[in-house]
Amino acid sequence: MVRCWDPIARPAAAEPWTSTTRHTSVERALEGADAAIIVTEWPQLTQVDWPQAVAVMRRPVLFDGRNLLDPATMRAAGYRYLSVGRP
């Protein structure tokens, strides 16, 4: 099951993937997640209360494909934080 959030994407009349659910907030999309992947640089992602969001995830793994967040801050918040080109 893929849970996603995008602030401007419009839901299609019929989603091409039956195991995808769109959510209206990042926090809602993270509920019960085994991992999260950041693939855009939406400013809303820098405003998420990541220390609070870690509590709703099943496994706090975060892959930051845009190097949007600070690695030390995310690890201190309890995430297994992975990013592109950074230790």
What does this structure look like?
The chain has 87 residues and is an alpha/beta fold. The protein has three helices and five strands, in the order ββαβαβαβ. β3, α2 and β4 form a beta-alpha-beta unit. The model has no long low-confidence stretch (mean pLDDT 89).
What topology does this entry show?
Elements: E1 2-5, E2 20-23, H1 26-30, E3 36-38, H2 50-53, E4 61-64, H3 71-76, E5 80-83
Parallel strand pairs: 1-2, 3-4, 4-5
Overview in brief:
The protein has 87 residues and is of the alpha/beta class.
> What is the strand tally?
5
Strand portion:
15-25%
Using the CA coordinates, give the radius of gyration. Answer: 13 Å
C-alpha termini separation: 29 Å
Widest β-sheet, arrangement of strands: 3-4-5
Order of helices and strands: EEHEHEHE
- Unreliable stretches (pLDDT < 50, length at least 5) are none
Largest sheet: 3 strands, parallel
Oligomer: single chain
* Helix content bin: 10-25%
Provide the structure class: alpha/beta
The total of helices stands at 3
The overall average pLDDT, rounded, is 89
Globally, the shape reads globular
